[in-house]
Design goal:
Strand order of the largest sheet: 1-2-5
Shape: globular
Largest sheet: 3 strands, parallel
Strand content: 15-25%
Number of helices: 2
Number of strands: 5
Structural class: alpha/beta
Radius of gyration: 12 Å
């Protein structure tokens, strides 16, 4: 993977669950700044499945390195 390819690009992510957050995670790995906008209740993946410190691990895995706002 070419690190830094998307350096200086800002992406606003309105996605939930798995496919969208996974795609924006890949953009983040290429250097894009990802700003995740969630509903007041948060991305449903926050509350689904196995949890670490109260947050779903699928959510944590696919949203690392992003700034999230509710």
């Amino acid at each position: 993977m070419i690190e830094g390819l998307l350096e200086g690009i800002r992406v606003v992510d309105f996605t939930n669950y798995l496919p969208g957050p996974f795609a924006s995670q890949r953009l983040s790995e290429l250097g894009a700044e990802i700003i995740k906008i969630e509903s007041v209740q948060g991305d449903p993946a926050r509350h689904t499945g196995l949890k670490r410190e109260g947050t779903g691990i699928v959510y944590l895995a696919n949203n690392r390195g992003k700034r999230a706002f509710r």
